């Protein structure tokens, strides 16, 4: 296999002797590199005298050097041909946009300039049309998996979502949304950018949706500082790469331990919607015990017969249970609604006065153990609570921990609509999970928890009132108050860390009874159990 040794650098800004001197020193110490890739501003406002020596051949770049085009009006004159050209011996301008394919098979996609803020786009900027044409030139090729390298001058907007901090750079405001869209579509293995005078190596992110798509390679985003900066920030990055086309497919898709969720997930979600509508409805079971992400169509033969699931009696508790409604241990003053198979109760030591639990009347350990009629009533309670909380200007987040618990408790916590979006809630859970090395995966919207976990499987599960779901298969220890702590600690949600321990939040019985009466009264118009 042909291993390529490459160097990438940030804004040169005309400091040619500085960058090429550094390259010579590295090669003297570490051996020859094949290529230098330059992102950001290659030329500066005082480049002319130094550049003239390279144009005349008096000086020469030590290795083949490939640069992006102008990012401002002042340096446009250095780039005579928008389609790319040799600027001096060993120094090549790649062009406005395109794909460079080396003889080794390495594919490098590039986009010059900054995102246009006006129309028509200035010569030093790119437009939506530029990005769409570059995407289509690659996405239309048969069996496209991604590119090896993507070069842009601006950072992609939101690149630090789900990842390590970018320091002083606010990635929600800085960078280009079009570059984010390009990166989401082209799935580069390495993406280099500059312009912000900062070094940032993001944790690698995955390019597939776990449990929905077959595993794909990860992307490493690296932003580089300006050459010769006084703060000693890293501006030169050395790496070795085997072209994707020459790699063993299993080796290519290996996921590093520190891999994160895709920061452009929203963009990826919006793109395939039209296509998804065309696909025939097909039910899938996702088997976490075997190869991750493997799909098995459900055709009725999967479990050996096609008979409908029979209603079964719930198992009996082995000892006292605080949540079986017939049990003397149940604190019945907290109960606010009783259906045929389930009931609602205020949470003891709840985060808020309207923090409520959905519980089966019989003894079931988890959602995956529920019979079809109990599951149907759980769904009705979710719908009623969604309507109720929306009438109060709130949305709910629901979670279940099937670990060190004997009776199913679905925790339902309302959050003000104007405080956060469903994406904010998901991001809070995923970010907190990553910080604690918990792999929290998004599962398909039209699947349910019973397709992901078998009865007896320990797990943690989050569901939003939009139907979006997150799942973690518990294989060892797990923080018992994880869900509660995420909702409490996140500034996007409640930001009430002092209420992390429910025991410290429990009110006196008369106060709890009064809260239950108030909830029961407010919930009455939405309570189907009073009408059925």
Automatic annotation (TrEMBL):
Instruction: Give the record's GO biological process terms.
Output: mRNA splicing, via spliceosome
- Annotated Cwf19-like C-terminal domain ranges read 310-418
From the UniProt entry, list the residue stretches annotated as the region Disordered: 257-276, 291-317
Family to which this protein belongs: Belongs to the CWF19 family.
Organism for this UniProt entry = Smithornis capensis
What the entry lists under InterPro entries is as follows: Cwf19-like, Cwf19-like_C_dom-1, Cwf19-like_C_dom-2, HIT-like_sf
Q: Where is the Cwf19-like protein C-terminal domain?
A: 436-528
| Annotated GO MF terms | RNA lariat debranching enzyme activator activity
**Gene it is expressed from:** Cwf19l1
Recorded superkingdom = Eukaryota
One annotated Gene Ontology cellular component of this protein:
post-mRNA release spliceosomal complex
Q: What is this protein called?
A: CWF19-like protein 1
């Amino acid at each position: 296999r042909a291993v390529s040794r490459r160097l990438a650098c940030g804004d040169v800004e005309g400091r040619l002797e500085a960058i090429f001197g550094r390259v010579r020193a590295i090669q003297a110490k570490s051996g020859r590199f094949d290529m230098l890739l330059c992102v950001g501003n290659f030329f500066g406002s005082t480049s002319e005298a130094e550049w003239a020596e390279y144009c005349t051949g008096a000086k020469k770049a030590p290795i083949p050097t490939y640069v992006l085009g102008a990012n401002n009006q002042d340096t446009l004159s250095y780039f005579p041909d928008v389609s790319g050209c040799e600027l001096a011996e060993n120094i090549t301008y790649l062009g406005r946009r395109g794909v460079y394919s080396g003889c080794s098979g390495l594919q490098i996609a590039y986009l010059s300039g900054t995102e246009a803020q006006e129309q028509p786009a200035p010569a030093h900027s790119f437009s939506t049309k530029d990005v769409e044409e570059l995407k289509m030139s690659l996405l239309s090729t048969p069996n496209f998996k991604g590119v090896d390298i993507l070069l842009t001058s601006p950072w992609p907007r939101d690149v630090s979502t789900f990842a390590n901090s970018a320091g002083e750079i606010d990635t929600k405001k800085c960078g280009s949304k079009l570059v984010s869209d390009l990166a989401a579509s082209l799935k580069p293995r390495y993406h280099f950018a500059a312009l912000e005078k900062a070094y940032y190596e993001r944790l690698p992110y995955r390019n597939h949706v776990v449990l929905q798509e077959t595993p794909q390679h990860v992307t490493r985003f690296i932003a580089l500082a300006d050459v010769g900066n006084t703060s000693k920030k890293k501006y030169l990055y050395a790496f070795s790469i085997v072209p994707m086309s020459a790699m063993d497919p299993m080796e290519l898709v290996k996921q590093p331990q520190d891999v994160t969720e895709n920061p452009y997930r929203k963009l990826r979600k919006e793109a395939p919607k039209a296509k998804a509508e065309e696909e025939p409805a097909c039910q899938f079971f996702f088997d976490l015990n075997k190869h991750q992400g493997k799909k098995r169509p459900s055709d009725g033969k999967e479990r050996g017969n096609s008979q409908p699931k029979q209603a079964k009696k719930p198992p009996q508790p082995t000892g006292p249970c605080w949540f079986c409604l017939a049990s003397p241990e149940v604190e019945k003053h907290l109960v606010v609604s009783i259906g045929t198979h389930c009931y609602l109760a205020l949470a003891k030591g709840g985060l808020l006065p309207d923090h409520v639990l959905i519980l089966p009347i019989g003894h079931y350990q988890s959602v995956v153990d529920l019979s079809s009629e109990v599951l149907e009533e759980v769904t009705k309670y979710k719908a009623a609570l969604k309507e109720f909380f929306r009438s109060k200007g709130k949305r709910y987040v629901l979670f279940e921990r099937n670990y060190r618990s004997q009776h199913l408790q679905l925790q339902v916590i309302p959050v003000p609509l104007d405080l956060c979006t469903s994406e904010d809630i998901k991001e809070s859970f995923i970010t907190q999970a990553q910080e604690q090395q918990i792999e929290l995966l998004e599962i398909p919207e039209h699947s349910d928890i019973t397709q992901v976990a078998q009865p007896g499987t320990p797990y943690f599960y989050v569901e939003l009132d939009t139907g979006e779901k997150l799942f973690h298969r518990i294989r060892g220890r797990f923080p018992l108050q994880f869900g509660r702590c995420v909702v409490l600690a996140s500034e996007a949600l409640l930001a009430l860390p002092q209420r992390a321990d429910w025991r410290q939040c429990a009110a006196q019985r008369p106060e709890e009874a009064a809260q239950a009466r108030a909830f029961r009264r407010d919930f009455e118009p939405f309570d189907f159990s009073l009408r059925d």
